[in-house]
Amino acid sequence: MANRRPQVAPTAGRRESIDPLERAIRPPANESPEERERRLRAEEEARRISHTIDRMLREDDKERRRKKVVKILLLGQSESGKSTTLKQFQLLHTPAAFHAERLAWRFVIYLNLVRSIRRILEAIAPEPDTNGLDELDDIDSNETATIVIIGNGRFSSSIPGYENYCRRLAPLFELEQRLMRQLTDPEEPDELEATHLPSSSSSHQHRHPPKAEGYGSFTPMHRAPAVSMSDPTRSPPRITIPPGMSSSPTSPVATSPGAEPTVSTRKNWRKAFALGRNQSPKNAHSGELHGWWEDPHDPVHVLNRCAPTMSELWRDPRVRQRLAEKRIRLEESSGFYLDEIDRVTAKMYFPKDEDVLRARLKTNGVIEHVFSLPKNNEYRGVEWRIYDVGGAQSQRHAWAPYFEDVNAIIFLAPISAFDQTLAEDPTVNRLEDSLMLWTSVVSNKLLAQVNIILFLNKCDLLKRKLESGVRLSHHMISYKDRPNDYESIANYFRRKFGWVHHSYTPNKARECYVHFTSVTDTMRTHVIITNVRDIILTGNLKSSSLM
Ligand SMILES: Nc1nc2c(ncn2[C@@H]2O[C@H](COP(=O)(O)OP(=O)(O)OP(=O)(O)O)[C@@H](O)[C@H]2O)c(=O)[nH]1
Ligand SMILES: [Mg+2]
Asked: Which of 156, 254, 343, 472 could form a disulfide with 143 if both were Cys (CB 3.0 to 4.6 A apart)?
């Protein structure tokens, strides 16, 4: 075999015994005392810097090894407040990213407002004369944005000026179609796309759930064990389902098939809205875009022109009366902006944090949000992954794969919804559905070691609903003649959900942490989130030696 070692050329004369580097850094032979002192000082400084770098590298290495992941899953029915809770996590931990997205939410807010106007027009539409029903079969109920005026006196109890309102507000529904088209990616299957603002670099979306061998599909909620307050063997409490509030099939404003528009978004839906297409200059101080109001195609112009009619409609006492008669409470859905029409439709409208928290965009699929705590926090080094799932019935099959390795579940139950039905199934009472879901989650053996935190949510709406005279016992017979005040009812729900956990949990040692929440309330929710974070870290993580 050939010898591959490099051949060293023999040096002429004396053999060099010092290696070249040593020779290069050797002090000069004729060094003066001052030069020597300078050199020694420089060497000392170099040594100090080298030690500092070594120490930093060692700490960095330790930090990387210490880095652990905490996974939190947000569960609950559709509109329970999961995405709003996720927004609060973002606002608390990555406020810069949250603020950077505010402008894109403007379009969702516009859609929400237009949707509320549509619901009002549906509600005040003349009721059909049953004799004319046959002729109405021609109306395409899938048409989402066309206003179909059907006159000829076939309707009764019309609100005066109804047709006039429809005509003046018609541009809004063209705008609605346009915004929906921009939000929807025609190449993406609707069910797989998350209808949520894609977040900053710290977050990303999962189109496909992670594989979780052996998990199978999540227990169908309606086959959950029976629920009862006092006796586990008894059947679930009877909850009367109020008549559906869906609009009349003969409504002059033709509606989409669902109770709310299902809007799918592109991966980067800010791009879909082409912010900056109009070459809007950036603000020199904040770096934020401004000047969109100078773009004649910006949706704000249509809204701005329709604003006086929208306000007139919303303030019309006959309209309010009709909404009350039909038990339509727009504040429970996207009605929040109706009280703020002038502000929201102003040409230079810039959404506030609160506006973004109120913006409703249904989640399809699962959203993952990742963040770390700041360096000065005692729990730094832990990476947090929060998963926000779609809560509609058709979305729940996607939950189970995320049960693997989850450290905590935050379950949201909107307790104000005791008199409402599911948008996707008007035969199912929302509270009953929440209880069924809760039972399925707490009884799940795969989740036996997982921390469970219950948010009894929408307490602000519950208070308002009770103050307006709605009685729980009319919708939940088991409540009987107990007091109808907020304290009594909130505590009743706490006991009920608590009892379900106590009765069905496979892990009797597990504590269930319950919070009364209104997750649109930033200050209170941030206190609760911090508290939840500590519970997860001190309880769960200690036991799994993550700390
Ligand atoms: N007033 C009030 N509104 C709330 C509260 N929690 C959520 N909302 C509003 O209810 C609507 C629905 O909330 P989301 O967070 O989108 O509901 P979700 O659970 O993510 O629903 P899906 O994505 O369909 O599963 C939004 O407009 C929220 O602003 C609350 O505590 N009080
Ligand atoms: Mg959501």
From this structure: 254
- In angstroms, the CA 161 to CA 138 distance is 25
**Does residue 364 have its Cβ closer than 6 Å to ligand 1?**
no
Give residue-wise pLDDT tens across range 386-430: 999 999 999 998 898 899 889 999 999 999 999 999 988 999 999
Distance (Å, whole) CA 349 – CA 344: 6
**Up-side HSE of residue 322: CA atoms within 13 Å toward CB?**
22
Q: Ligand 1 centroid vs 79 CA: distance in angstroms?
A: 5
**Ligand nearest to C-alpha 109:** 1
Q: 78 alpha carbon to ligand 1 midpoint, in Å? A: 8
Distance from residue 88's CA to the centre of ligand 2 (Å) = 13
Contacts of 153 (CB under 8 A, 6+ apart): none
Q: Is the dihedral of CA 498, 503, 505, 509 positive or negative?
A: positive
Q: In angstroms, how far is CA 385 from the centroid of its own chain?
A: 14
- The H-assigned helical ranges of 459-507 are 459-467, 486-504
Contact 455, 413 (CB under 8 A): yes
* Matching residue, tokens 């009605």: 335
Residue with tokens 């909130």: 490
Tens digit of each residue's pLDDT (9 = 90 or more) over 442-458? 999 999 999 999 999 99
Instruction: Identify the structural domains of the chain with CATH numbers, from first to last.
Output: 68-216+236-543 (3.40.50.300)
- Quick check: CB of 363 below 6 Å from ligand 1? yes
SS3 443: helix
Q: Which residues of the chain have pLDDT under 50?
A: 1-14, 132-156, 189-259, 261, 263-266, 274-281, 284, 541-547
pLDDT computed for residue 375 by the predictor = 66
**C-alpha dihedral over 187, 192, 197, 202, to 10 degrees?**
-110
Q: Is 360 in the pocket of ligand 1 (CB under 6 A)?
A: yes
Whether the CB of 518 sits within 6 Å of ligand 1: yes
The pLDDT assigned to 196 comes to 39
User: ipTM beyond 0.95?
Assistant: yes
Q: Which residue in 152, 145, 125, 148 sits closest to 137, CA to CA? A: 148
C-alpha span between 161 and 166 (Å, rounded): 9
What pLDDT is attached to residue 288? 56
Residue 512 CA, ligand 1 centroid: distance in Å = 23
At 213, the amino acid letter reads E
**Rounded Cα gap, residues 274 and 278, in angstroms:** 8
Q: For residue 87, which ligand has an atom nearest its CA? A: 1
Instruction: Classify 68 as helix, strand or coil.
Output: strand
CB atoms within 10 A of CB 264: 21
Beta-ladder partners of 72: 386, 408
Q: Phi then psi for 75, rounded to 5 degrees?
A: -125, 160
Which residue's CA lies nearest to atom 2 of ligand 1?
A: 458
| Best residue among 78, 79, 362 to mutate for probing ligand 1, ranked by most atoms within 8 Å of CB | 79
Quote the CA–CA distance of 420 and 246 in Å, as a whole number: 11
